[in-house]
Amino acid sequence: MSSRNYTLTFSGAGTLTAPGGRFLYIKAASAELTITARGATTQPIVLEGIGAGTKFGPVPPELKWTYLDVTSAAPQVVTLFISDDAEVDIVSTVNVAGQVATVEMPSVTVATPARIATNTATDTLIAAQNLSRRRITVQNPSSNVDSVTVGPTGSLSTTQGVEIEPGMSFQFVTFAALYARAVTNTPSVQVLEES
């Protein structure tokens, strides 16, 4: 039993021959192909208009082909994987070439509502869900003496959530609603929401 990779280079339209087997996978081809499997005990099997990613087989041992005639109408390089084995797994690979440029667009609006008072008993909504939000900055003003925790409702406590100490801020990149809870006392928080 064997498995092999073959590269066929077509300088123009033509037919090239590859060896026999029971399983065929076309790893690379930039144009359509016609493949004729011949040499088995049955009529030749013809695969027309196929390309990269095509799998054929495994065929039963009595249908194993002796040769593959690979026909291309255009110049191209074709890579084939041929195997005599009955069980073959192919893992697809993708190659990406080129460059990608990303641009983060600046916000169009900035909202700065009045400071929002928090408490230790409940989660206080400081920003509703907003699908056009780019980011939101939550600040615990330096005039406060107590920390606040920020996050989704139902998860805030003195040990859960993002803790923001007095004079500090934290930027969230989220569409979700945000809540705050005081660690002690009732500090207020300032929100700057960019959309």
Q: What's the number of structural domains?
A: 2
Determine the number of helices (DSSP H or I, runs of at least 4 residues).
Answer: 0
Instruction: Specify the structural class.
Output: mainly beta
Rg from alpha-carbon coordinates: 32 Å
What does this structure look like?
The chain is mainly β. It folds into two domains: 3-83, Jelly Rolls; 110-194, Jelly Rolls, CATH 2.60.120. Helices cover 0% and strands 46% of the residues. It has no helices and 17 strands. It has strands spanning 3-10, 14-21, 23-28, 33-38, 45-50, 55-56, 65-72, 76-83, 110-111, 116-117, 124-127, 135-140, 148-151, 162-164, 168-172, 178-182, 188-194. Strands 9, 10, 12, 15 and 17 form a five-stranded antiparallel sheet that branches. Strands 1-8-3-6 form a four-stranded antiparallel sheet, with no helix packed on it. It has a four-stranded antiparallel sheet with strand order 2-7-4-5, with no helix packed on it. Strand 4 (33-38) and strand 5 (45-50) form a beta hairpin. The mean pLDDT is 88.
Give the key terms.
Jelly Rolls; elongated; 5-stranded antiparallel β-sheet; 195 residues; mainly beta; 4-stranded antiparallel β-sheet
What's the arrangement of secondary structure elements?
Elements: E1 3-10, E2 14-21, E3 23-28, E4 33-38, E5 45-50, E6 55-56, E7 65-72, E8 76-83, E9 110-111, E10 116-117, E11 124-127, E12 135-140, E13 148-151, E14 162-164, E15 168-172, E16 178-182, E17 188-194
Antiparallel strand pairs: 1-8, 2-7, 3-6, 3-8, 4-5, 4-7, 9-17, 10-17, 11-16, 12-15, 12-17, 13-14, 13-16
